Amino acid sequence: MTLKIDRDQNRFRQIVRGKIRENLRQYVNHGEMIGRKGRDLVSIPLPQLDIPRFRYGENGRGGVGQGDGQKGQPIARGEGDDDGQGQAGNEPGSHVLEVDLTLDELAAILGDELELPRIEAKGEANINQNKARYRSIRRVGPESLRHFKRTYIEALRRNVIEGRYDTRRPRVVPLKEDRRYRSWEEVQEPVANAAIIYMMDVSGSMTDEQKAIVRTEAFWIDTWLKSQYDGLERRYVIHDAAAREVDETTFYRTRESGGTRISSAYRVCSQLIDNHFPPELWNLYLFHFSDGDNWGEDNRRALRTLRDALLPRCNQFCYGQVESPYGSGEFIRALENVFGEKEDKVVLSEIASRDDIYESIKQFLGKGR
Predict the structure, then answer these.
(1) Is the dihedral of CA 304, 310, 312, 314 positive or negative?
(2) Phi, psi of 78 (to 5 degrees)
(3) d(CA 367, CA 343)
(4) SS3 content of the chain, % helix, strand, coil (to 5)
(5) Cβ neighbour number for residue 161 with a 10 Å cutoff
């Protein structure tokens, strides 16, 4: 039997999901949720609707259209008449409701709205392992696994059948025979591991705004891929004229003043795959963000490393060119000339501003590789 409160809760969650769908582009493009991300939940800010109502004042104090007046005479104190000096207000302000949503729910909404296909995993995706799932109820078990709701329902049912339930004093005390416990079943689930290697240009031409765009986009990429794989590893590589692996905090906060050699990042990425992620066991996703300020011989070295060392071993290579007032933006043209539509694993995206993040994510994840 579905209780009314359960129906109301389900209806509320449907309303929340609808609101998020309506504003998803805003959330994606402007990073509304990143600062509200907890361990497993994201808090979604939803404005509440205040119902209009009449407010009655005191009678006999005059008002618009009452009494004598002169042309141009103000009818009430206007904005700025007190130069900002005044008493603190005593009226409630506008309210924002924050609703917690799991990352899986958020990923489902993202997938539906962007029409993202499910990913066909490779490697050990067809190898099964046993996992415990709590899917059944038993009469015996450890107290740590007692199912309190089912226990209460059994006690209530017994009281009603025995005629002991008093609606004036609705007190229900479970007995030993009422107790119910969660129990597990062993189920077979496919093993599928994935790794994301993020690479970013941190040379002097990449500003803090460009890094904020990368961080926002990476959050949504992580959210989607985590919903597709049980195990997800992330590694970070930064580069100017030289490249190195760093942690996540350094990845987003470092800014160098040197030149750019994209080939150095691709070499470090290849070494990470060699040392930690055998392609036959891992689904590899490579994301590179730069302003495209790379030239001449290093373009040729980077393209050669990408073609020979990275593409044969990854599910997908995504290059996002973030527009910068200082960068030349030439590297994406070199990628188009060499790969174009001939290489299905290569996905290119030009990100002029935050407003392009939504479409860029759809380009990167829309192939379901």
Answers:
(1) negative
(2) -95, 180
(3) 13
(4) 40, 20, 40
(5) 9
Sign of the CA dihedral with 17 first, then 21, 22, and 27 last: positive
Residue 314 in contact with residue 266, Cβ under 8 Å?
no
Reduced to 3 states, what is the DSSP secondary structure of residue 127? coil
How does DSSP classify residue 293? -
Question: CA–CA separation, 154 vs 286, rounded Å?
Answer: 53
DSSP 89: P
* pTM of structure: 0.63
- Triad 50, 55, 61: Cα angle to 5°: 155
Residue 52 above 60 pLDDT? no
Read out DSSP for 10-58? HHHHHHHHHHHHHTHHHHHHHTTTGGGB-SSEEEEEEEPPPPP------
- 290 touches 207 (CB < 8 A): no
DSSP 178-244: G--EEEEEEEEEE--EEEEEEEEE-STT--HHHHHHHHHHHHHHHHHHHHH-SEEEEEEEEESSSEE
The enclosing H or E element of 362 equals helix 357-365
pLDDT digits (tens, 9 = 90+) for 277-314: 998 888 899 999 999 888 779 999 999 999 999 999 99
* Cα gap 73→76, rounded to integer Å: 9
What domains sit in the chain, N to C, each tagged with a CATH number? 4-48+96-114 (no CATH), 129-189 (no CATH), 192-365 (3.40.50.410)
Per residue in 318-357, pLDDT (tens digit) is 999 998 776 667 899 999 999 987 888 999 999 988 899 9
